[in-house]
């Protein structure tokens, strides 16, 4: 990442300082071989803006580093084999039980290697944090419009990383070959078999024969520690490279424009704060891992196709995919042309697939609707992009309903409801919830815009009540200063697209669709305040 | 407020318009206001308490180095904990102490570095914000023109566009060369087996005794009282080793055995002799995605899959009454042998488990 701007031209060997001791000599030695001074010159004082929400992506990056460190430790002891062994470790309740070498070595890591359980728990907690922080980071990007030009491709890279993080999580979850992970794989097997034409053979090849076979743990292990991390690493590098190329976005504020970036330089402030933050994230994960158990596979026992416990749950980030399966209505197998179409699985999978595609391509859809080809480096306050925020709220609600559905049985038993009642409610909410969330969010955004407008024009309520000579009571409004006001007024609005015939006098279908979408987006809008309005309000 | 954005750009360029790159301002449907409010510029810098009060600065400095020293203490504690709290075989408490003490030591070491560094950055380091200017992401016109020129030159010099036979054959070759890799993946599963055949059969055969899971003890009809439920495997499964496909066979052959009052059973005419005196046997593999349907509600005679909550009605050939499953659980026809043990009449009459393409 830090060689981006280094030019390839040969440079004369002139060290920054001739004098000085070891540091100068070492710097000179390295620079004469790497041209690193160019990188330091370009990047050393590079400015990064400050905001708490910019830390979410950092949390994701740092938890990935923690996962790599703890995961490497685990590979030294884990045996990714499904060969049958009789457990002979320290955990008494499972002594003598037949299990795979994978499960036995997981138990050995947990019970016979000092610090092994700690590293396992650090690894698992950091993985949960990794997916969670990517998700929150994406929400921040979405609601502030940071995906707009020129960052659309980086949104796509980030979203692919989110999917890969879930794939990493699932493959890792399956490795210990315990009862829960085996059931998770059984569900994957059932879903794969439901895919038309290729499902049966895909499952057969994936498991190296019939489920569960003796191959799947080894195969998932290669994916988990080799292929997926390599792809993730490359994409993270690309993701950060783009952050450097684009320079970071910033929130609106006095002095901040589309042409500048205001904040602290990498050296020294940002290095201290971001570097320190890595240790804070690592420390918090370590603290959680030392205090709270995660994935106690010894309670579940080795995989056996027969037993299963009530209330089985995947890790949180797979919940939405498990939940969508639960919401399908019964009796959806259809036999057509002598083949079985398993719509009970296909419909949920398609629903999730469409959702994922909409999220993935959202930046391009919005860009098409607005027709805005400018670069945007100042973030939107979510309220100022009411329709986008409402769409985001609808998406979050959709996801949340699927997620809740993954716990339908727990909800039913915990709140003493019927299973059927919970499922039927969630089925309705899956479609109704996003609509309700959409309208609430949109109206809230518009109301907040109105409030901003009134504060910018008439000042804020001071809480001071004054009685006028006539007996009338008023609350005194204090004007906001220019700097405060700028945050409230420095945004643009869009207007609905007017349909106009093209050069050949025709109105295309695409044009009509765009106009409809544009009207949907921008029909309800509140114009930003102008200077004239402020001046006239000052006269009051 | 019209859409003719160009008239307003002189103002907008200052704050909200695009970084100018010499081309037209494609604002789309954005409304670029003519008299938008002007950016007031940077607010006056506010000094921190550590800038104003040398005593506070000294305090902050002391806090930072104390934290760093504390971190060293944490690291030492973690090492000490490794030795002081060893894992004693078969003592679960020692594992807990080992985990807790090493973890707390490390957490202290890490958090103290982190908080110290951030505090240093926030309280002591120079806090005047800096400004970088942005430039359009796209290359300059010269650069872009040169890039086009380079491709043109390369095209001319290689004849990539002109020599279409070479180009097209190369594209064909590049498409074809990864195909063998796809074929190689056929080796992921045994080559002499066909999943469709395997999925259509289980190890149950006529005369196989129904046995308890996991003990493998055969079950007598008289053992099965009304309302009870048995988790069942074929008796001969016990003789299958793990390397001979124990789990694979078990994953298909598991059965649930229940006894109801015979008058509670609503049986199809052609399946009347599949049960024995109110005892019925059904595949335990959910027809949805294959979880074991492990929960039996005695009062309602419903089976419930704990994974996705499909429910099956045992009195009515395990028809799906709720949840995402599409088909009833397949029934295993049973009978009793001379000694009163429950036996299978045959294999399941249809494939067990989740639906698949070639199932029908």
Task: Offer a concise description of the structure.
Chain A is mainly alpha-helical and 540 residues long. Chain A is 60% helix and 7% strand.
What count of structural domains of chain A?
A: 3
In DSSP terms (H or I, runs of 4 or more residues), the helix count of chain B works out at 9
Please tally the helical runs of chain A, counting DSSP H or I stretches of 4 or more residues.
19
Q: In CATH terms, what is the architecture of the largest domain in chain B?
A: 3-layer Sandwich
DSSP, total strands of chain B: 12
**SS class of chain B:** alpha+beta
Characterize the structure shown:
The complex is a heterodimer of chains A (540) and B (360). Chain A is 60% helix and 7% strand. With 540 residues, chain A is mainly α. In chain A, the strands form four sheets. In chain A, strands 1-4 form a two-stranded antiparallel sheet. Residues 1-10 of chain A have low confidence and may be disordered. By secondary structure, chain B is α+β, with helices and mostly antiparallel strands. Chain B has helices spanning 9-15, 49-52, 54-84, 92-124, 141-158, 164-176, 179-184, 195-199, 246-253, and strands spanning 30-31, 130-133, 210-212, 229-234, 255-259, 279-283, 295-297, 302-304, 311-313, 319-322, 334-336, 342-344. In chain B, strand 9 (311-313) and strand 10 (319-322) form a beta hairpin. In chain B, helix 3 (54-84) packs antiparallel against helix 4 (92-124). The interface between A and B is large, with 146 and 125 residues.
